[in-house]
Design a protein that fits this description.
single chain; 315 residues; alpha/beta; Rossmann fold; five-stranded parallel beta sheet; binds 2-keto-D-gluconic acid; D-isomer_DH_CS1; D-isomer_DH_NAD-bd; NAD(P)-bd_dom_sf
Length: 315
């Protein structure tokens, strides 16, 4: 019996430069098969690595159809779409692309905060509609000096905080436990954080551990003068509660790069100038996406050559 091929499974369309890198291996593109389950039943043996995005992950049924799988490589820092506990129980290691996107995601969070408080996109629409009259545009809210709460003080949350120090804002945060060596005020819960903030920026990871963390109660604590920015995952926010709070004016506005069911955006938000709607673009710059693709490829390459991933997700 000859040794099986060491095949790589591509789960979804990826950055062109990363797809070009995958060509150096025997790679199969699952998303191009009309019947993926039948394809895997026939060809699953010999697939040792899967390359996927944060959005798609490797679903349980795909994992179960791959008896030789040993590595899952994510293009993206988030990996909540893959059951890592299940993977590791089977001896499959998992990697993501941390650090390389931190700057761009933090930049966009600050941009979103300024946009929604100063209503930049709405003002642009106003000018384009030809409605500009002297003093005609409503006054907005000052950003500098405000109280900003950051939910999740990981790499991205810290980078957001560092940027906002330059705006003279008063920073506080909530995470599972207080972070070592951090001078910002720690709030014991998301609700307490929101109650003491003019703006709440969501920078946690997604997945079960943070699902619905920004609840109706948290939004009410943020209050009618408060703004929400979400660059994390739509799942972290109770989206129906957010839509209700925005349409009823129980919070002042929101800048949203992520949604519960992308690319579907709740219809009532489309009519609100108090909301900035972005199509999940926080990491989407040439520089960062190339760096993410490079790091994903380094993970695959090291696994294929040495049997280890370069940036495995934490245990
Ligand atoms: C990307 C992201 O949109 O890294 C993540 O977790 O959500 C974004 O950077 C995504 O990874 C692209 O698939």
């Amino acid at each position: 019996v000859s040794a099986p091929n060491r095949t790589v499974l591509q789960m979804c369309p990826l950055l062109p430069s990363l797809e070009a890198g995958l060509k150096s291996y025997d790679t199969v593109r699952l998303h191009e098969h009309p019947d993926p389950a039948a394809f895997l039943a026939e060809r699953g043996r010999g697939i040792v690595a899967a390359v996927t995005s944060a959005r798609v992950g490797v679903p349980d049924d795909v994992m179960d159809a791959l008896p030789d799988l040993k590595a899952i490589v994510h293009f993206g820092v988030g990996y909540e779409t893959t059951d890592v506990v299940r993977a590791r129980a089977r001896g499959i290691d998992v990697s993501n692309t941390p650090d390389v996107l931190t700057d761009c995601v933090a930049d966009l969070a600050v941009g979103g905060l300024i946009d929604v408080m100063r209503r930049l996109a709405a003002a642009d629409r106003y000018v384009r509609r030809g409605e500009w009259t002297p003093n005609g545009y409503p006054l907005t809210a000052k950003v500098s000096g405000k109280r900003v709460g950051i939910l999740g003080l990981g790499r991205i949350g810290r980078a957001i905080a560092t940027r906002l120090e330059g705006f003279g804002v008063e920073l506080s945060y909530h995470s599972r436990r207080p972070a070592d060596g951090v001078a910002y005020r720690y709030a014991a819960s998301a609700e307490e954080l929101a109650a003491g903030a003019d703006a709440l920026i969501v920078a946690t990871s997604g997945g079960d551990g943070t699902h619905g963390l920004v609840s109706a109660a948290v939004l009410d604590a943020l209050g009618p003068q408060g703004y929400l920015v979400n660059v994390a995952r739509g799942s972290v926010v109770d989206e129906p509660a957010l839509v209700a709070a925005l349409t009823e004016g129980r919070i002042a506005g929101a800048a949203l790069d992520v949604f519960a069911d992308e690319p579907n955006v709740p219809a009532p938000l489309l009519d609100l100038d108090s909301v900035l709607l972005l199509p999940h673009i926080a990491s989407a710059t040439h520089e960062t996406r190339e760096a993410m693709g490079g790091l994903a490829f380094t993970n695959l390459h090291r696994f294929m050559a040495e049997g280890v991933l370069h940036t495995p997700v934490p245990r």
